[in-house]
Write a structure and sequence with these properties.
By secondary structure, the chain is an alpha/beta fold. The protein has helices spanning 45-51, 61-78, 92-103, 117-128, 146-156, 177-186, 235-242, 255-262, 274-290, 292-312, 339-350, 377-392; strands at 34-35, 84-90, 109-113, 132-136, 160-164, 166-167, 172-173, 190-194, 213-215, 227-233, 328-332, 352-353, 355-356, 365-369. The protein is globular. GO terms for molecular function: alanine-glyoxylate transaminase activity; L-serine-pyruvate transaminase activity.
Length: 398
């Protein structure tokens, strides 16, 4: 007969764990920053309100009407009549990868610039798409010279040419865009323009300048949270995409599939980020209400005041006036000043964000945004006063 054993509670073996205990997480309460870095910029209150409105389904008739409106507003902002104009579900890097990953086919050659961080990202994406990358050289902090672009075409005969209209890492605006696109088209190449830091803040005319593909992000001059990112392609380029022999390597960003959702059919492809689409719709409504050319002028005026104030502090701009980028002001760090200490001081004392340099300019510049809802005189005055104090704390006298 088996003897039964009774254990007291104190003697009971520990039960095996069923998983971690619920974490104690407090209510979200982020600081109220003034965002004057390279992005994101301050979000307009109307955009935030739009994000708090009720969800509907991603194929709901109401949402389909929202999709139509967003596409029309994007065409207005890009200055294009392109039918293939959509907000890609994802951050600006998603619209960038959608552009390059669909247009560059295995075996294609893509010409990319070397004059900034985001030309390097173009190169990386082109290689991942199976393309061969060749480069047109220019120093960091300078635009591409059309003569160098012409020589690169004659030497390499690329299928695709990519350039950065507004280089966020250097504060340089690429001039002579129509000249660059003319060179590319004379050689039968497709042109992809990075407009992440220019769309909605700096003059950009997709059709007039004969740009085949342009992509952007919503969190810069559009002052919208990231999540739905602008992309436009002309018919010529979309024909190339739809006639590919090999499918793009990304299913999610395959434009031949996205066409079914954003085209006339409105067939299911993925669940769109509905709230982000609401947000970009409202952000683009603000662009249309202000008027695109008036918006460009506001950015030039407010950023011009910022540039004048920085020079009054004895600071030097990284880009000469001929290719100064109003939406992203790259400022040289004076000798003897710790760039990171200034950034930390502004954040700690004033809840004010600016950023340091990237790549070849790391430690040499500050990047100060003047974009969208952040491009307001009161923000410029606030930043200049706080920056003067931060510099003074390090013994800088100007």
């Amino acid at each position: 007969m088996t003897e039964s054993v009774v254990l007291s509670m104190s003697e009971t073996p520990e039960l095996s764990s069923q998983g971690p205990a619920a974490p104690a997480v407090s209510e979200l309460n982020p600081p109220d920053r003034t965002l004057m870095g390279p992005g994101p910029s301050d979000v307009h209150p109307r955009v935030l309100r739009a994000m708090s409105t009720p969800l509907v389904g991603h194929l709901d008739p109401t949402f389909i009407e929202v999709m139509n409106e967003v596409q029309e507003l994007l065409r207005y902002t890009f200055r294009t009549d392109n039918r293939w104009t959509i907000p890609v579900s994802g951050t600006g890097s998603a619209s960038m990868e959608a552009a390059i990953g669909n247009v560059v086919e295995p075996g294609d050659t893509m010409l990319v610039p070397t004059n900034g961080y985001f030309g390097g990202r173009m190169a990386s994406m082109a290689r991942r798409a199976g393309g061969e990358v060749v480069e047109v050289d220019a120093p960091w902090g300078e635009p591409l010279d059309p003569a160098d672009v012409e020589r690169a075409f004659e030497r390499h005969d690329p299928d695709v040419f990519g350039f950065v209209h507004a280089e966020t890492s250097t504060g340089v605006l690429q001039p002579e865009v129509p000249t660059l696109t003319d060179i590319a088209h004379e050689h039968g190449a497709y042109v992809i323009a990075d407009c992440v830091t220019s769309l909605g803040g700096v003059e950009m005319r997709v059709d007039e300048w004969d740009i085949d593909v342009a992509y952007s992000g919503p969190q810069k001059c559009l002052s919208c949270p990231p999540g739905a990112s602008p992309l436009t392609l002309n018919d010529r380029t979309m024909e190339k995409v739809l006639s590919r022999e090999e499918e793009p390597r990304s299913w999610y960003l395959d434009l031949s599939l996205l066409e079914g959702y954003w085209g006339e059919e409105r067939a299911y492809h993925h669940t769109a980020p509905i709230t982000n689409v609401y947000a970009i719709r409202e952000a683009l409504r603000l662009v249309a209400e202000e008027g695109i050319e008036d918006r460009w002028a506001r950015h030039r005026e407010v950023a011009g005041d910022l540039k004048a104030g920085l020079r009054a502090l004895g600071l030097e701009m990284n880009a000469p006036d001929d290719y100064w980028l109003p939406s992203l002001n790259a400022v040289r760090v004076p000798d003897g000043v710790d760039d990171g200490a200034v950034i930390e001081y502004l954040l700690a004392e004033y809840d004010l964000e600016i950023a340091s340099g990237l790549g070849d300019l790391a430690g040499d510049i500050w990047r100060i945004g003047c974009m969208g809802y952040s491009a307001r005189p009161k923000n410029v005055e606030f930043l200049l006063a706080a920056l003067e104090e931060a510099l003074s704390a390090q013994g800088y006298e100007g």
